[in-house]
Amino acid sequence: MLERLVELKEPLTYAILSLKDGPVMLNAQEWEVIEDVIPILKPFEVMTTELSGENYPTLAMVIPLVRGLHISLVSKQMRTYLGQLLKQKLLGNLNSRFKLIEEQNPKPEFSRATLLDPRFKKLAFQHTINAENVEKSITDELSLLISENLNEENSNISETPEIQTTSNNEAVDLWGFLDDKLNTERTQVTSVSTADNILKQYFSLPHANRKSKPIDFWIKHKVLLGELFNLALKYLVIPATSVPSERIFSKAGEIMSAKRNRTHPKNLDMLIFLNKNLKQL
Length: 281
Fold this sequence. Notes:
Blueprint: H1 2-7, H2 9-18, H3 28-51, H4 62-75, H5 81-98, H6 109-115, H7 128-158, H8 176-204, H9 214-220, H10 222-225, H11 228-235, H12 243-255, H13 265-278
């Protein structure tokens, strides 16, 4: 809105001056403030557009975009007092709202999604300790997943048909407790070492292009990275937002125009559905 206002500054001024009862025009100081705050508001528009996508996972983009937004705001040099005040307010709100975004508490999904995005991995984190904590949490979750799969495989192998005996003397297994502990220990050691090796393999691969689709990377390396593929699908998602419903609402207003004001609600629903889904095919 402000950009458009600056673009139309001269014709707006001439038009208002030509009106007998026109509104009071902005003075030079107010125009300076408007031109000063546009560059600091522009990064918010870019970030909002990036995170409003519906056809690509956006959860992993939050941390790098927040960091890029902070760097962009800090680098801006404001000429007016109101511009400087706005910059301070924006930085303060940005820090208070997103200061814990990289940490595992209370919302670990953002950091885990960023780490599992082959375009970012650890590079998007501001603090190294946060990246290390995320890696540890992913290792633990991956180890648990591998352990569950191993236990399931072992249980399938160990299943044997029961043998009916007529002997009154039941078999006594004095080594059963030790065998159970050994199997549990072996499973834990194997799962932890396997998880470490898989993550090392993942980090050793080159970073994907920033404009590429992370899901394509994981499909390509599905066999190589094993169970880590399942964790990537778990965290590389599109968080629920109100953007799609707002877009549908706007599209409904375009379809239900003045010339279509007698369209039946059922037909309107069908037109909106087709308009929304045919574009994605």
